[in-house]
Amino acid sequence: MMVEIGYGLPVFLHPLLVGEGLIGGNNYNIHTPGKNSGLFYPAETGIENLKRFYNFIEKHQSELIERPEEFTIAKARIFDYLVKLDQDYFNLDAWDVFNTNTESHHEQATDLLEDIQNNNLVITKAMDSADPGHLKLSLFSRDSAPGFENFKEFLNHPDFDYGWGVFDHSEATSDVEIFEENGLWGLKDQKGNLIGAVFYFLDFKTSVGNINKCLINNFTSPTSGEIDNVVPSVNIPFIFHTFCFISSPFDF
Asked: What's the pTM value of the predicted model, to 2 decimals?
């Protein structure tokens, strides 16, 4: 699970979503029968395309970047994060957004696919011509950067941190690794050593995504302050996200 920011990706990260995009079913909202609520793109192609775009931005930083040092740091962090991912597809899950519109999910998915294709055409034209002047917000699809006057202003917005602030990289930068084994969740240190005999499981009867019970040495107990000294303080990343990295568009 990589991104949940306004149920979408900033347009300058759309280069991740290139190649032959596919319309498929839900990846997170699997309790529904929907079949046309997500887009799937080959990951390796997207990462290489985003590298090309960020190199283009860096080459034209005098015209596009307000804080070059911060951009350089963000760029390095983004691609260090992306190259560590090992699944084959990016998935943009738009089920929640599609439910707010009366059009069918398939119609909305088709429109979204076309919008992303158009945005990438604009970006590709700028890269091919070596001209950042082609990055006009008016050329991108509707609502690609609402409230901004131009692409430079959008790209340099502090909340984005040139893309690094968009990704949920908490797991990538954590001192511990969260792993799953036989339906339970556990913790390992950076060297792969098990941190105690602690395992978690999710109880969906009360609230989806909340961890309200844990299993410690085969003893089940509600999570509370009495076991804080046993359970390391980490967040299990199992809450709704819209952009993720998966092994196959047909896994679900």
From this structure: 0.67
